[in-house]
Amino acid sequence: MNHRIALITADRGDRPEFLDHCVYQMARQTVKADIHLIINSPGEPGVVDIVPRIRHGIEQAREFKAKYCLIIENDDYYPDDYVEKVVSYLDRFDLVGVPMTKYYSLQQNSWKDMIHPGRSSLYLTSFRTESMDDFAWPADDMLYFDIHLWQHFNGSRGFINHFIQTPIGMKHGQGFSPGNFHNCIVNGRKMNNMIADPGRAWLKSHIRPESFKFYQELIP
User: Fold this and answer.
1) How many domains is the chain built from?
2) Residue 199 structural domain
3) What DSSP string describes 145-172?
4) For 103-114, how does the pLDDT look when each residue is reduced to its tens digit (9 = 90+)?
5) Range 162-181 average pLDDT
6) Rounded to the nearest 5°, which phi and psi values hold at 203?
7) What is the pTM of this model?
């Protein structure tokens, strides 16, 4: 695994505690990245800008001569073997992701699984840097960039299902997050089929103790 690895995190500076926790998680990885590119220039209020931030991160990764780029979202949970597993797949595939997402709502103390046929959520998407050279970028204000990426990507694809612990998409309501599912709310209503987690027992059993303490203190 002697390759240059770049992590790309789009950040708007509006949830610094989560960003600090993100950096902490990446420092724990069993395989360390060579650079963590945090794209945190100020954004316009209410304006979706994930596409230009990711594009800028890839440009920086190219300048750094990184072979692999991993999208790391600042508010989600990553197990300690995440980078190691992803890089082992990027040795064989151009685009790598996880086909099933676990979501957890810290506001509702509940969780659910979501299956994404043929694609991955953005926070679990990684790729060979050179494979993005001829990518057809969408408009800068596209909201669901992950769907566009997986639909228009040219290259081989691989999916990972096994980690020491499962990555979890954390929903919390802090900072600018325009997606329908960010607060586990869809068009003003709670997401269907959420599984209640009294006392956050399920969450505690699925993440490292230090991260559980962080979530408990941030959103009791």
Assistant:
1) 1
2) 5-218
3) HHHHHHHH--S-EEE----SS--EEEE-
4) 999 988 999 999
5) 82
6) -60, -45
7) 0.93
